[in-house]
Amino acid sequence: MSSMSSELERLAELHRQGQLSDEEFARAKARILQGEANAAPPPGGAPFGSQASGQVLRRSLNDRWLGGVCGGLGRMTNVESWIWRLLFVLTSLCVGGGLLVYLLLWIFVPEE
What we know:
single chain, mainly alpha, 56% helix
């Protein structure tokens, strides 16, 4: 029982910090209270990075040069953020799409 209460406390803390949305918090809480096998999977599958790695893509507040996109991608994928920065620069120079992708991620990905 103490394991369940500690899990609920950990979920509540993540929710207070803004790392879990209201919907994610409710699903995770139901999964803990009902047991992993009884909880229904989310409709439409998991969003990118949320269920598979346990993290949701968020722009980093600490590891940032411009918008924190590469820092967030690095944390979510466990790949160094300088590699993501290099990839964005190379795709911007060679293809031109890297800058557009970075700007769209900067606009649509929420901060931590």
